[in-house]
Amino acid sequence: MTDVLVLVDHTDGELKNTTAELLTAARAFGTPAAVVVGKPGTAESFAETLGKYGAGEILAAESDEAGKHLITPEVNVLVGLASERQVPVLVAASAAGKEIAGRVAALTGSGVLSDVVEIKDDRSAVYSIFGGEFIVEGAGYGASPAYSLRPGSVDPVENAASPSVTAVEFPAADETSVEIVSFTPAEGGDRPELTEAKIVVSGGRGVASAEGFADVVEPMADALGAAVGASRAAVDADYYPGQFQVGQTGKTVSPDLYVALGISGAIQHKAGMQTSKTVVAVNKDEEAPIFEIADFGVVGDLFKVAPQATEEIKKA
What we know:
By secondary structure, this protein is α/β, with parallel strands linked by helices. The protein contains 8 helices and 19 strands.
C-alpha cells in the first residue's frame, strides 16, 4: 500500500541527491511510491537506487515527449495519482518543485507546506516563516497535502525494498502547457551544485568586487571541495552571477558547513541558509547580524583571514 507520492528529482538521466532525502523523509508517512516522469526506460534505470532508499513502488509516466514541456506533465501526473489514491505528495523545494507543489495542492483542493525541513508521522511539518525569523510546525489540510522539502535538510538513510515498476499515463500536452524550445546550459564548472553541496562558501558585499570572489572566495571553496554562493548584495553589484545567489529571493541551502565571508546577514539571506548545520562567519563588523546565527565567528579583515585559512586547509 502506498502512503505518499514522491516526485523523483532527476536531470539528464541522473538522479539528484535530493531524491534519497525525499524518500527518507517520506517514510514518516509510511511506504513511499516513487513517481518518475521522463523518457522511456528512465524508471528502470533508477529502480535499484529508489528501492535502496525505501520506495515500495515505482510509478513510471514515460514518453518521448518528456522534457518538452515545463512543469505541467509532472503536475498532471501527480494530480491524477493523488486524486485516485488520496495520499500526500512530496517534492524537492527547488524553484520548479515549489511551483509543482503549489499547483498540485490547488488542483486537489488540499494544503501546501513549502520549504519544510522535517516531516512528522501526523502529517505535520517543520518550516520557517517571515523570512526565516521563526521556525514553526504546521499541518497540511485535505486528502492530498503537498510538501516541498528543503534540499540538504534530511540525511539520506537506506531502507532496502524491492519495488515493482508500474506504467501510468503520461498526460498529453494541452493549451495551458508551456513548450520548451531550447536550453542554454548554465556554466557550473567542476564545483558541486549549490543546493546539493555539503559545504558552501559564500561572499557578500564585503568581498568588494568580482576579483575578490576570484581571489578569496573561490580559492577557499576549491580547497574545501565546496560550492560557491553569493548574497543578493554581491549579485546586485555584479560581483557574482545571479544563479549562485543564496537567500529568500535566491536559492535555499542546508549544507553541513556554510562559510559566510563579508556577509552582514540580512534577514533575506539568513532565510536561505540558516538551517545549515554549522555556520562560520568572517566580518569586520562585530555587530553584523550574521554572528547571531554563526557557530563560529571571526571579527576581522576577510582579505587577511580567508587566505590564511585557505592555506591551512590545503595543508590538512
